[in-house]
Design brief:
Elements (H helix, E strand, L loop, with lengths): L7 E7 L6 H11 L6 E7 L4 H4 L6 E4 L7 H8 L11 H32 L3 E4 L7 H10 L3 E5 L7 H7 L4 E4 L2 H11 L6 E3 L15 H7 L7 E6 L8 H11 L6 E6 L7 H13 L6 E5 L5 H6 L2 E3 L10 H9 L3 E4 L2 H6 L7 E3 L4 H12 L2 H18 L2 H15 L1
Parallel strand pairs: 1-2, 1-4, 2-3, 4-5, 5-6, 6-7, 8-9, 8-11, 9-10, 11-12, 12-13
Amino acid sequence: MSILNAPKRILYIENGIGYGGAIICLRHLVRNLDRSKYTPLVVTGRNGPHYREIAEEAQWRHIPDRHIDIVGAHRKIDPLKWPDKIPGLRFIINQILARTDDIANFLPFFIRLLYTAKKFKADLIHANNEPLCNRAALMVGKVLNIPVVCHVRGNQDGSRLMQWAYSLPDRLISVSHWVARNIQEKLAIPADTIDVIYDGIELEKLDINADGNAFRSRHNIAENDFAVGLIGLLIPWKGQEIFLDAAKILKPKIPHLKMLIVGGTPDECKSYEALLRQRVIGERLEDTVIFTGHIAKMEPVYNGLDVVVSASTSPEPLGTVVIEALAMGRPLIGPHHGGAAEMMQHDKTGLLFTPKDAASLAEQIEKYYNNAQLRNTLGNNARQHALRTFAVSTHAEKIQTVYESLL
């Protein structure tokens, strides 16, 4: 094969907070990449069994991006009141943490990433998360003079630093129209540098007939129990506290209610999981709320639940839970903002509730409980919508079109 016709080398960089929707969607993309045109290498800032599985699908490297937990330090220090009593002390503390992050985390990651990109002879860098947390990827692209694509998956705060970071990538891939509008309005990024491409999943590989009863049995959920599941990493903005508030409201209304919190906990959020568990004990919800931890194979979970919930308190771009639940044809409830509101039509493909409002969430759960026909109808509508919208082949083709335009 001539050099001109050789597959282009794409370096993927994933440095999210934990193993969640972003990395799952990246794995779907890499598995379906046209290998006659592109050779992938996936770099992850985190390690663990699920990350190491990537090596079975593509070249994979682990480059640690967090030697010191600066986020955890902020989480402990920011709520403290005493630093504000001394003028300038809060600023000094923040500067010390920022410079520590630069020296201990950013610089080692950047050096190793630059070495990896040069050795791999990357033709293009695809950062799987937003630009500001991918400064190292952006700098490597500038040093090597190769294009950089950034996948944008969340809400932005409109700061000057954020605006600067978003001006650096050659292209931005937005996972929903809501995210694209957010980038344009808050950061003044030109529309012609943004491509809206919905995340794709391997619909044909979803086991829609997975044994949900096995999942229920594993977690002691009886046949006549009404099981509602909130799926997502245990991090504060995923809405587990709203879910617990709804559980308190619904417990006296729905006999045999089970409220499941499904998902793993990143290391820096262990204290948040402990808080949730303390709430369950303190509010006497032990017989209602179940923590399952991380579950690798999700189809039995979806089929074992009577209702699937997404309850993010901040607008979520387009959660993997929403996509998978729709594709599985499961009754779904989501917040009326962000990607969930864009993907779900109330009373047609799912139910929407007022964000951050436990009473509204409880009302929609009770609506499903009282109407089994509604659950079946909306679930069937959801699957048909997903089949039209989220095919991974369409997703991969659109991503590769972006690559072609840059290469």
